[in-house]
Amino acid sequence: MASEPQYIRFRSTTNPFVDRSGTQIGAKLDTQLFMLSDFTTNVQNLTNMVTNAGGAYLCFSSMDASAETAWAILPMSNAAWELGCSGTANSGKGAYYSLGLTAADGNGWVGFRDEGREKQPGSTATIVYRFGIRVGGCIIPWGTVPGVSTPSHAWDFKHSCSSQVTDSVGDVRATLNGVGSNMSCSKIGGVRLDGSGSYVSYGSWTWGGVTTIEAYVKLTSLSASQSVFDCASGEGRLSNDVALTASNDSALHVLVSTASINSNNDNNNDNNNNDAGLTTRVSSPSFWPTSTWVHVVVTMDGPQVTIYKDGALEQQLSSGQQPDRARRSHCYTGKSNVGTDEFLTGSIAYVRMWNGVAVNTSEVAMIYAHRQDCSTYTCGTNCGNGECYSDQRLISSASQIAGQSDVLCCEHVCSEHECRSGDQLKSNASSLYGQRGTDCCEIASTTSMSSTTTTTKTATATTSST
């Protein structure tokens, strides 16, 4: 028996669908199903969902009184879903449909032409048109992947540079802390954390038991302990904490604590998972490279902790535990519940979570294969604003530069927050492209004499160092 078709639905803040209403009048009438502007604020941008719609379907349905009936399922394989490539000729294209016909044109909105057809047999009521995307060849990484259970929560940081990021599956909102100072984001690179106070916090929610956590991460540097995901009922490691961390020896650590019993934790030192207050730590050595995107999936099912890297099994140990079911309100990416731990330095593309499900090896391979199918923001061979972080700008000749990288397309814009105490922006800093603080700042001086003195001290220090 064929499996039940699964649908990805565009979500709004008030309704899983964005609705447009229209009345059949027996004549040809263009009906807008939605405008691109519907997806530019607090709802998911259309670009998030489909950038290459081959194999996907638009599903229309009608609302008649309290009954909703599927009305038309139209193939999207010929649709032009090249949306949002800022500054390029493809900006604002959408798919236009005529009932019974194929995709014809794109003018910044999706709709269809009502050609006087009967909307429902025997019905004369006003139709409320609704839509969804049937899963086909194009999968969003935080949406439903064929053959894999639907995640419980999903946060995509590749398409939201605002301070709030909506949970595209559940209702736990994420907050970007440090926006505009220590944090920046791009539609290619996700949210970038600088290790100096920028982090993501999540709302509180109740979860536990069998658990899967997924993240797509690029670490810029390593330190004693940085948290990719840390979620607990309170501060510290003994408050129903679940943490995925990176250490300076490149290891991934999975830490789980149950009840907050403090010094009574595992008194027998037998690593018995039934002990109250047990804290376990499972590690995978040499896991984290730097400056490289890494796809990590961790499952916790009873004492068994399984770690996957880039779609393949990396480590499987039975010395761990699954988290207790509890309400956790101290949940972060980039920040630890241990005050002495460092903030994360690197980029996070997205985080997903499955409650009650431990995905298996074949499912992880499918998840990894779909990690960029519909999320990677590309603008053909030309650069676009979407490729630059919020503290960057397009290079003046970027339109002639081929590439998908912010290194090729963008230049750094200096700002005062990059300078240390006693330093100031260089006079030509606004046109500099370089590392943070290195090429942007100079020692501040109020008079030429103090400037000369400062220069002399600098030269002397350099000589002494040599």
Which key phrases capture this entry?
466 residues; mainly beta; Jelly Rolls; 3 domains; 8-stranded antiparallel sheet; 4 helices; 29 strands; 8% helix; globular; disordered N terminus; disordered C terminus
Provide a descriptive summary of the structure in words.
InterPro entries: ConA-like_dom_sf (IPR013320). Pfam families: Laminin_G_3. This protein is mainly β and 466 residues long. The protein has three domains: 7-134, no CATH class; 153-369, Jelly Rolls (Sandwich), CATH 2.60.120.200; 414-465, no CATH class. The protein is 8% helix and 33% strand. It is built from four helices and 29 strands. It has helices at residues 46-49, 361-369, 406-409, 448-465; strands at residues 7-8, 20-22, 28-35, 57-64, 67-75, 109-115, 127-134, 153-156, 164-165, 174-177, 183-186, 190-194, 199-202, 205-207, 211-219, 226-232, 242-246, 252-257, 279-284, 293-301, 304-309, 312-317, 326-328, 330-333, 345-355, 392-394, 410-412, 423-425, 441-443. Strands 8, 11, 12, 15, 20, 21, 22 and 25 form an eight-stranded antiparallel β-sheet that branches. The longest helix is centred in the last third of the chain and has 18 residues, at 448-465. It is globular, with a radius of gyration of 26 Å.
